[in-house]
From TrEMBL:
<feature type="domain" description="Orc1-like AAA ATPase">
    <location>
        <begin position="262"/>
        <end position="447"/>
    </location>
</feature>
<feature type="compositionally biased region" description="Polar residues">
    <location>
        <begin position="166"/>
        <end position="195"/>
    </location>
</feature>
<feature type="region of interest" description="Disordered">
    <location>
        <begin position="377"/>
        <end position="406"/>
    </location>
</feature>
<dbReference type="Pfam" id="PF13191">
    <property type="entry name" value="AAA_16"/>
</dbReference>
<dbReference type="InterPro" id="IPR041664">
    <property type="entry name" value="AAA_16"/>
</dbReference>
<dbReference type="InterPro" id="IPR053159">
    <property type="entry name" value="Hybrid_Histidine_Kinase"/>
</dbReference>
<dbReference type="InterPro" id="IPR025662">
    <property type="entry name" value="Sigma_54_int_dom_ATP-bd_1"/>
</dbReference>
<feature type="compositionally biased region" description="Basic and acidic residues">
    <location>
        <begin position="118"/>
        <end position="128"/>
    </location>
</feature>
<dbReference type="InterPro" id="IPR027417">
    <property type="entry name" value="P-loop_NTPase"/>
</dbReference>
<protein>
    <submittedName>
        <fullName>Transcriptional regulator</fullName>
    </submittedName>
</protein>
<feature type="region of interest" description="Disordered">
    <location>
        <begin position="1"/>
        <end position="43"/>
    </location>
</feature>
<feature type="region of interest" description="Disordered">
    <location>
        <begin position="220"/>
        <end position="243"/>
    </location>
</feature>
<feature type="region of interest" description="Disordered">
    <location>
        <begin position="118"/>
        <end position="195"/>
    </location>
</feature>
<feature type="compositionally biased region" description="Basic and acidic residues">
    <location>
        <begin position="154"/>
        <end position="165"/>
    </location>
</feature>
Length: 1250
C-alpha cells in the first residue's frame, strides 16, 4: 500500500507513518479472546489465536516463506504439528481461577464504593482510546509522532496484548477499557502526561436525561432496603459518550418481589454506530444515585458478534456470566486473604445453585456456559475421591427431540437466573449489539422478563437502529412483548412483571461536544473551543466515536500539537478544515491506518477479522479489519484457514472449535472435489449435532441444511449413513422451528426408501406423526403412519372390523385379570427393557395412543393393553409408566372401577423410580394419573400440586405437550376445587399464552374456555353467559368444532356452560342444555373429571325449571342425575358427597319434606365448606337461603349474606353484584363482617378492568 504524506489528504484523514512499535491501530483495543471468551484462560484442549500466530511464527522466522500467510498452509513440516498450546508463562496470573478473578473487573459491581466521597475518581477510558500504539505507557508520548523503530512481529504483538491483560486493572476483553482515574493513587492508576490527549479521563457528556431515566428504571428493580442481601464487591465503573424521546410501557402480573412498583425493566438503547450507546449503558450505572443504599448489586455486560453468531449462539450471556464468575471468585479470594470466617458470597451462591438445580440441570448450564463450572463443586465417590465435573452432564437420549433439549435448557436457565437475581439486588445485564442476537438468545431474554417468580432484573438492550427493521427477529420479539403488555393492560394482576422503555440515542449537541473537547484537551479556553467545535461538527456530525477518532487523527498527523513553551495545545483551524476529510466512514480510516502495520501484524488482523478468535472493543475497528480482505480473496483466506485447522486439530480440539472451522469452510470458496464436499457435509452434521446439544435449534437447522446442500445426487447409494444423519438432524430441528412442509418433504423421501432400517426411521416417524397430529383433520394419517411403522417392527394393531371388536373384548378381560397380579413384589421384579425394537415400538405406541384419545378412536384400548403387555413381557422403558396410567383410564371408563383404576395409577407412579431417567416420562405419567384417575379417587385439592410439578418437570425435560397438558388440567382441577379466581386468571394469562406461542392451537383453544369462564365470573365480559371476550369468541369456537377432531374440546365447552348456567341462575337455559347434552357427555367422555360435579349443576337447573314449568321431563332427568351422584359416591369418589347430599335435599324439598330437606342441605353446606369447595358452598348457601325465604326470613338473610361474602372471597365479583342487586332490599350494603369474612366495597371490587 502506498503511504501518503500527512499533508496530502483526500477525503479521509490519513494514517501517520508507522510509529515505534508499529501498531497504531485497533490492536490495543483488540483483546485476547479464547473460544470461551475469557482473557488468558489456559485450556489445553482449546484453540487460541496464539496457537495460530505461534504456528505461523515458526515458519516465518525460518525465512522459508516470503508471505507470512503461507505459514498457515500446512506445508512446513518443522512447525511441531503446527498448533501449540498457549501458556501465560510471563504473567503472575497463570491459572484459570486467577484469570477469572482478573476478569472480574469487567463486571460492574454496584457496591459500597458508590457511597465514598471520592467515587467521582472512577472514570473510563473511551473506546477509541484503544486505537493506540502497543508500547509501554510511560514511553508512549515519545512515540506518538515517531516513524522510527522496529515494527513488532505478530508474536510480540500478542505478548504485549497479554501483558496489558495481566497488568492493566479492569481491562475487559470484549467491552472497552475501564480503569481508575489518574487522579487516584496506587498501582491501579495509569500515568498521564501533560502533552497527551486525555481520552482516559472522559466523562459522559450530553446524556443527563438518559442517565436519569436509566437510574429511575434501575431503582424500580430494588426491594425495600431491609430485604436486600449483602454481597461483597470491590469494583465500580463509568463510561463516556452517548438525547431524544423516551417511551414506557408496563405489564401487569405477579412478581416475586411484590414491593409496589418493583418489577423487571427492559431498556432499549437504539442509535447509529458510534453514538455512545454502550458507554451510556455502562456509565449510567456508575453514577446511579438510587443505588447508594444498595450493597449487593452488580451490572454484567455481554456483546453479540455478527461473525460469531453461529459458533456462539449465546455470546452476550456467555460474556456476562464470565464476569459473574470472576466477581464471585474475587469475592472469595478477598475473604480468604482477609482470613474471614463467615461464609463468602461465592459459597452462599454455590449452595443456592446446588439446591435449586439438579445434577442434569447443572450439567446443561455448564455445557452452554462453560465458566459456570467454577460454581459447582466436583463430585466425589463413596471412597471420597474427586472425579471431576463430567458427572453432571446428562447424556441425552438418542431419540430426544431438539425441542426437548431446548426446553430442558430453558428451564435450567430460568432457575439459574432466579438464584442470581435473588442474591444480587439489583441485577443489571447489558446486552450489546442485539441486532446480531439469534432467536436462541432472544428466547433467553424473554424468559427473564416474563418470569413472575424471578426477583426484578434490569436488562439494557443496545442495538443499531439502522440494522433492525420490522422483519428483524429482534423486532418480532419486542412486538410480542409489547403485545403481551396490550393483552394484559387493565388486568387484575397484583403488579407489573416488566416494563419496556425505549431510549433513542442521537449524536451529541454542540454543548456536549464542547465539553468533550474541553476534557480531551484539558482546557477551558473558550476561544480555542469556539474554533475547534464547528470544525469537529462539520467533519463528524458530533458522532462521539467518530469525533474521538477524528481528534486522535489530528494529533497523529500533527494538525494538533502540544506547545511545551506555551503549555497548551495549538492548531490551525483553516489548515484542519482544508486538509482533512469527514469521518463518516471511520472504518475506512482505521483500515488505512492498519495499512502501515508489518506483515505479521496484518496477518493477525486478517485472522481476527474472521471473527473467530479475537474480540473487539468497537465494531468499527472490527469492520476495518474485515475490510483488509474482501471478495474472492477473503473466501480463499477463509478456506485456507479452515482447511489448515481441520488438518492440524486433534479430535478433542475440533470438538471445541467445530463451529469456527465449519463456518470458515462454509464461507470459503466451494470445495472442488467430491471428497471435500462430503468431508464438509460431515463437518456440518457434526456442528449441527453440537448446536442441537446446546439447544441452539436455529443454528442446528442451518448447519444441517448446509450439509444437505453439499450431498451428491447419488447420496443414498454412496453415502447413505451421512445422508440419513443429516436428514434426521434436520427433521428434528426443523420440527421444533415449525417448518412443517420442509420436514414433511424430508420424511417422505426417507420413509419411502426400502433400504432404511426400521430403527433408523424412528425419529422421522415421530417427527412426521407430531406434525400430522398438530394439523387439523390429519389424525387418520397420523394413526396410519404409526400403524404401518409398528407392522415393520412386528407389532400389529387392528383398526376396524371384527378383529378390532374381538381384540377389544380380549383386551378388557385381560386388563381385569392383570389387576390381580399387581403387587409390590411383582412390580419390583420387572427388568429394564433391553431390546431396541421393543423400546421403539413402545415409543410409537405411546404417540399412537395419544392421537387415538384425541381422535376418540376405538383402537385406544388395544394400544393401551399392548403397551401394558410389552412392559410385563419385555421390561420397563420410558413409555411403561404412562401405559399403566392409560390402563387406569380404561378401568374407570369401561368398568367404573375406581379402586382398580387407583391401583393401576399408583403403580404407574411406582414404576418411575425404577427407570434410568424417570424424569423423561414423569410429566406424562402425572398428567394421566392425577387428572384422569386421582381426581376421581382422591380429594380434588391433592391433584393441584402434582399437576403444577408435572408442568415444571415436563419443561425441564423437554416433554412440552405433557407439561402443557398438566398446566391446562391444573386450571380445570383448581376451578373444580374452588381455588380463588384471581390467581387462576393470572395463571391463565401466563401459562396459556405459552401454549399459543409453542403452536399447540387445539390445546390453547380448549384451555381458553376455562379462561373465558373465569373472566365472565369476575365481570370482565359483556355477557356473563356467552363465552366471548378476551380469551375466546364463542361463535368462532362453535364453527371450528364442527370437525370431528375438535370433538374433545366440546366436552370442556359444555361442562363450563352447565356450570355458568347454575352459578348465574339461568336455570331454564341450563335445564334444556342438560337434557340435550348430559347423556352424550357421560357416554362419550366417562373419565372426564368435571363429569362427577355436572349432575349437581345440571340437576339444580332441572329442578328450578320443573318448579316453574311442571314438566315431568325435567324431573326425570334430575332423578337420573341424582342416581349418577349416588353411584359415584358408592364407588368411593370422595369429591361428590356434598353434591349428593345437596341434590337429595333439593329432591326432598320438591316432595315438601322440609325438615329432611333442611337437614340434608345444612350437611351439604358443611361438607362443601370442610372440603374447601368455596364456590359450591356459596351456591348452596344462596339456594338454601332462597328455600328458607318464605318460612324463615332471618335464617334466609344469613345464608344469602354468607353466600355473598363467599362469592366475593372466591373472586366471582359479577355473581356477587348480581346477588346484591337481586336482594338489595334485604341484604345490607357490603360493610359488615359476616361469618368471619370482611365485606366491603374494596373486597367487592369493580366489574371493569383495573
Amino acid at each position: 500500500m502506498r503511504k501518503t504524506s500527512p499533508r496530502n489528504i483526500s477525503g479521509l484523514a490519513p494514517s501517520p507513518p508507522a510509529p515505534k512499535g508499529g501498531c497504531d491501530t485497533g490492536l490495543r483495543g483488540l483483546q485476547r479472546g479464547f473460544p470461551s471468551g475469557m482473557n488468558g484462560i489456559n485450556r489445553s484442549s482449546r484453540l487460541t489465536t496464539a496457537d495460530i500466530v505461534a504456528a505461523a511464527d515458526v515458519t516465518y522466522a525460518s525465512g522459508r516463506f516470503e508471505d507470512p500467510s503461507q505459514a498457515l498452509n500446512g506445508d512446513n513440516s518443522n512447525t511441531a504439528a503446527g498448533v501449540h498450546t498457549f501458556d501465560n508463562t510471563s504473567g503472575t496470573c497463570s491459572g484459570r481461577t486467577e484469570q477469572l478473578i482478573k476478569g472480574a473487573g469487567r463486571a460492574v459491581v454496584i457496591s459500597k464504593h458508590l457511597d465514598r466521597e471520592d467515587s467521582s475518581c472512577h472514570d473510563v477510558r473511551p473506546f477509541d482510546d484503544n486505537i493506540s500504539t502497543l508500547t509501554d505507557p510511560e514511553n508512549e508520548s515519545n512515540n506518538n509522532r515517531s516513524g522510527s523503530g522496529r515494527r513488532k512481529r505478530g508474536s510480540e504483538v500478542m505478548e504485549e496484548l497479554d501483558h496489558i491483560s495481566r497488568t492493566t486493572p479492569f481491562l475487559p476483553s470484549n467491552q472497552g477499557r475501564i480503569r481508575n482515574s489518574s487522579k487516584g493513587s496506587g498501582s491501579n492508576s495509569i500515568p498521564t502526561s501533560t502533552n497527551r490527549l486525555r481520552f482516559h479521563e472522559l466523562q459522559l457528556h450530553g446524556r443527563e436525561k438518559e442517565v436519569q431515566i436509566l437510574q429511575e428504571c434501575l431503582s424500580k428493580t430494588l426491594p425495600p432496603p431491609s430485604s436486600r442481601p449483602l454481597a461483597s464487591s470491590t469494583t465500580s465503573f463509568g463510561a463516556s459518550e452517548g438525547d431524544d424521546k423516551c417511551n414506557m410501557d408496563g405489564m401487569d402480573g405477579n412478581n416475586a418481589d411484590d414491593h409496589g412498583d418493583c418489577c423487571h425493566q427492559l431498556v432499549l438503547l437504539s442509535g447509529e454506530s458510534g453514538v455512545g450507546k454502550t458507554a451510556l449503558a455502562v456509565g449510567a450505572m456508575e453514577t446511579a444515585k438510587p443505588l447508594q443504599g444498595s450493597k449487593s448489586g452488580i451490572c454484567l455486560w455481554g456483546k453479540f458478534d455478527q461473525a460469531k453468531a453461529m459458533q456462539e449462539p449465546y455470546a452476550a450471556f456467555v460474556g456476562a456470566f464470565q464476569q459473574l464468575v470472576g466477581n464471585l471468585l474475587l469475592s472469595k479470594k478477598e475473604q480468604e486473604d482477609a482470613g474471614a470466617d463467615s461464609q463468602s458470597l461465592y459459597q452462599t451462591l454455590q449452595n443456592e445453585l446446588m439446591s435449586a438445580l439438579d445434577s442434569a440441570e447443572r450439567g446443561i448450564m455448564v455445557e452452554t456456559f462453560e465458566d459456570l463450572d467454577e460454581l459447582f463443586p466436583p463430585a466425589s465417590s463413596s471412597d471420597g475421591r474427586v472425579h471431576g465435573r463430567t458427572w453432571r452432564r446428562r447424556q441425552p437420549s438418542s431419540q430426544e427431540s431438539h425441542e426437548a433439549k431446548k426446553s430442558r435448557f430453558h428451564n435450567a436457565f430460568r432457575k439459574f437466573i432466579r438464584v442470581i437475581a435473588k442474591q444480587y439486588r439489583p441485577l443489571c445485564i447489558v446486552l450489546d449489539d442485539l441486532q446480531w442476537a439469534g432467536l436462541s438468545s432472544l428466547a433467553l431474554l424473554e424468559i427473564i422478563l416474563i418470569d413472575p417468580l424471578c426477583s426484578s432484573v434490569m436488562i439494557i438492550g443496545v442495538y443499531r437502529s439502522k440494522e433492525v427493521d420490522e422483519t428483524h427477529s429482534f423486532s418480532k420479539v419486542v412486538r410480542d412483548l409489547r403485545q403481551r403488555l396490550k393483552d394484559n393492560s387493565g388486568s387484575s394482576m397484583k403488579g407489573p412483571v416488566y416494563e419496556i422503555h425505549d431510549i433513542p440515542i442521537g449524536n451529541l449537541d454542540m454543548d456536549a461536544t464542547r465539553g468533550l473537547l474541553s476534557d480531551i484537551l484539558s482546557t477551558d479556553d473558550q476561544d480555542k473551543l469556539d474554533e475547534l467545535v464547528p470544525i469537529c461538527h462539520e467533519k463528524t456530525r458530533n458522532n462521539p466515536f467518530f469525533l474521538l477518532t477524528f481528534v486522535r487523527s489530528l494529533c497523529d498527523n500533527h494538525y494538533l500539537e502540544f506547545n511545551l513553551s506555551l503549555y497548551e495545545w495549538k492548531f490551525d483551524p483553516e489548515e484542519i478544515r482544508t486538509g482533512t476529510g469527514s469521518t463518516e466512514n471511520v472504518a475506512e480510516m482505521v483500515k488505512q491506518r492498519m495499512g502501515y502495520l508489518d506483515a505479521r501484524s496484518l496477518l493477525v488482523l486478517k485472522l481476527a477479522g474472521e471473527g473467530a478468535f479475537l474480540r473487539w472493543v468497537h465494531d468499527s475497528i472490527q469492520e476495518a479489519a474485515i475490510l483488509l480482505v474482501s471478495g474472492e480473496a477473503r473466501r480463499c483466506l477463509e478456506k485456507e484457514i479452515g482447511s489448515t485447522l481441520l488438518e492440524k486439530l486433534s479430535e478433542t480440539q475440533l470438538d471445541s472449535a467445530v463451529f469456527v472451522v465449519t463456518n470458515l469452510l462454509n464461507n470459503g470458496t466451494p470445495p472442488a472435489t467430491r471428497e471435500d464436499r462430503l468431508q464438509l457435509a460431515s463437518l456440518n452434521l457434526r456442528a449441527a449435532n453440537a448446536a442441537a446439544f446446546r439447544s441452539a435449534v436455529e443454528n442446528a437447522a442451518t448447519y444441517a441444511r448446509s450439509g444437505l446442500d453439499l450431498l451428491p445426487e447419488d447420496k443414498w447409494e454412496t453415502c447413505a449413513e451421512l445422508t440419513l444423519g443429516l436428514y434426521t438432524t434436520s427433521c428434528r430441528a426443523e420440527t421444533c422451528l415449525g417448518s412443517h412442509e420442509y420436514v414433511m418433504a424430508l420424511t417422505d423421501e426417507v420413509l419411502q426408501r426400502d433400504n432404511i432400517k426400521p430403527l433408523e426411521k424412528l425419529p422421522l416417524v415421530l417427527s412426521k406423526a407430531s406434525i400430522l397430529e398438530s394439523q387439523d383433520g390429519r389424525f387418520e394419517e397420523a394413526m396410519s403412519l404409526c400403524s404401518s411403522y409398528l407392522k415393520e417392527l412386528g407389532c400389529r394393531i387392528p383398526r376396524s372390523g371384527i378383529s378390532l371388536v374381538c381384540g377389544t373384548v380380549k383386551t378388557l378381560v385381560a386388563i381385569k385379570g392383570t389387576k390381580k397380579k399387581l403387587s409390590e413384589e411383582f412390580i419390583s421384579k420387572l427388568p429394564v427393557a433391553q431390546d431396541p425394537k421393543v423400546v421403539a415400538a413402545m415409543l410409537v405406541l405411546d404417540k399412537y395412543c395419544a392421537i387415538a384419545i384425541i381422535a376418540s378412536s376405538p383402537v385406544f384400548p388395544l394400544i393401551a393393553h399392548r403397551m401394558l403387555s410389552f412392559t410385563l413381557k419385555h421390561g420397563l422403558c420410558d413409555a411403561s409408566p404412562p401405559a399403566f396410567a392409560l390402563v387406569a383410564m380404561l378401568m374407570l371408563a369401561v368398568f367404573g372401577d375406581l379402586q382398580g383404576a387407583s391401583l393401576y395409577a399408583t403403580t404407574s407412579k411406582d414404576l418411575m423410580p425404577m427407570l434410568p431417567n424417570p424424569q423423561i416420562c414423569q410429566a406424562r405419567t402425572v398428567f394421566l394419573s392425577s387428572f384422569f384417575t386421582f381426581a376421581w379417587t382422591q380429594p380434588l385439592n391433592s391433584s393441584v400440586k402434582p399437576l403444577l410439578e408435572g408442568y415444571e418437570v415436563g419443561l425441564a425435560n423437554g416433554d412440552i405437550d405433557s407439561a402443557l397438558y398438566c398446566v391446562g388440567t391444573y386450571v380445570t382441577v383448581a376451578m373444580l376445587a374452588g381455588r380463588p379466581l384471581e390467581g387462576l386468571l393470572d395463571d391463565c394469562r401466563v401459562y396459556f399464552g405459552q401454549m399459543k406461542k409453542l403452536g399447540r392451537e387445539r390445546m390453547y383453544i380448549a384451555c381458553n374456555i376455562c379462561w373465558q369462564a373465569i373472566l365472565n365470573l369476575m365481570g370482565f365480559s359483556e355477557d356473563h353467559l356467552t363465552l366471548t371476550g378476551e380469551a375466546m369468541d364463542q361463535e368462532e369456537f362453535l364453527v371450528n368444532t364442527l370437525s370431528p377432531e375438535m370433538e374433545s374440546n366440546l366436552c370442556v365447552f359444555h361442562w363450563i356452560r352447565a356450570f355458568l348456567y347454575s352459578i348465574f341462575g339461568n336455570t331454564a337455559l341450563g335445564a334444556n342444555h342438560a337434557i340435550e347434552i348430559a347423556e352424550w357427555l357421560f357416554k362419550k367422555f366417562p373419565w372426564y373429571p368435571p363429569n362427577f360435579c355436572l349432575p349437581y349443576y345440571m340437576g339444580t337447573s332441572l329442578i328450578d325449571t320443573y318448579k316453574t314449568q311442571k314438566k315431568k321431563k325435567y324431573l326425570k332427568h334430575a332423578k337420573f342425575l341424582s342416581l349418577k351422584l349416588d353411584n359415584y359416591a358408592k364407588k368411593g369418589n370422595p369429591n361428590v358427597q356434598h353434591y349428593k347430599m345437596a341434590l337429595e335435599g333439593e329432591m326432598l324439598a320438591l316432595k315438601d319434606k322440609t325438615g329432611e330437606a333442611t337437614s340434608k342441605l345444612e350437611k351439604a353446606i358443611a361438607l362443601a365448606t370442610r372440603g374447601g369447595f368455596i364456590h359450591d358452598s356459596a351456591l348452596m348457601n344462596e339456594r338454601f337461603g332462597n328455600f328458607l325465604m318464605p318460612t324463615d326470613g332471618q335464617r334466609a338473610l344469613h345464608h344469602l349474606t354468607v353466600a355473598y361474602s363467599l362469592y366475593v372471597e372466591w373472586g366471582a365479583r359479577k355473581k356477587a353484584e348480581m346477588l346484591l342487586e337481586k336482594h338489595k332490599d334485604l341484604l345490607p350494603r357490603p360493610t359488615d363482617v359476616v361469618a368471619g369474612y370482611t365485606i366491603s366495597p374494596s373486597t367487592l371490587g369493580s366489574s371493569t378492568h383495573r
